[in-house]
Amino acid sequence: MNFESPQTATESKRVLIVYAHPEPASLNGALKDTMREHLLARGHEVEVSDLYAQNWKASVDGDDFPLRDAAAKLVVPADSRRAFSSDSLTDDVRREQDKLRWADAVILQFPLWWFSMPAILKGWVDRVYAYGFAYGVGEHSDRRWGDRYGEGRMAGKRAMLSVTAGGWEEHYGPRGINGPIDDMLFPINHGVLHYPGFEVMPSFVVYRTDRMGEDQFAGVRERLIQRLDGLWTDAPIAFRQQNAGDYEVPSMTLRPGLEPAGTQGFALHVAAGRD
């Protein structure tokens, strides 16, 4: 498959599923398989990055930048920038970057472990999101802080989280003991996906996964298929764009009066009435 070929079809789309679970027979594996099979049946192209099967290296270290001076101090952003600009990143990272360039949409499939993504998936982000590829893009000055939060290399693409959680849905509600699920996933949706330009779809979350039988899975599967069919037509989360005028420069703070009274925290960065 040529990951860098341009998109030409008007109906068929290209979807990358980044899958992070060590057990193929898990619920996460079943959800990944459901997505792949359904999207292919709809005429889309699908690629799966199975991180455990690929034995993905999760930690960033000097080996990620083969041409660097091993005797020099490791400075990850600077070494990442030099390696990306000279096309000398490791082969595994470059393959994943090519997949991201190729894809029209990206779905991250993972279990919620300790209120976040598994370490192997975080390591995929850490290594694949190189300086000059996912960050450090565009003009950086006292007038503009780069092409980020709605702009960047992933602009025009869509992304969605598909997450499994062992707890009850109520545990992740507005007054739930674990905290609201949208707040918990905000650093991933806003920071990992919206930052480099993705339009981010509301997350697909499955709860009480350790007690799920075949009947319950049938309902989950149907809900997932509905979400997949709306991947390019449903409205994304209305995250504010950094360079669209909502933020003061250079402080990058939200301009007064743009939020409903009493709004604070993460909710400030979602435009009211457009979520």
Automatic annotation (TrEMBL):
InterPro entries: Flavodoxin_fold (IPR003680), Flavoprotein-like_sf (IPR029039), NAD(P)H_dehydrogenase_qn (IPR051545). It comes from the Bacteria. This is NAD(P)H-dependent oxidoreductase. Keywords: Oxidoreductase. Residues 13-226 form the Flavodoxin-like fold domain. Belongs to the NAD(P)H dehydrogenase (quinone) family.
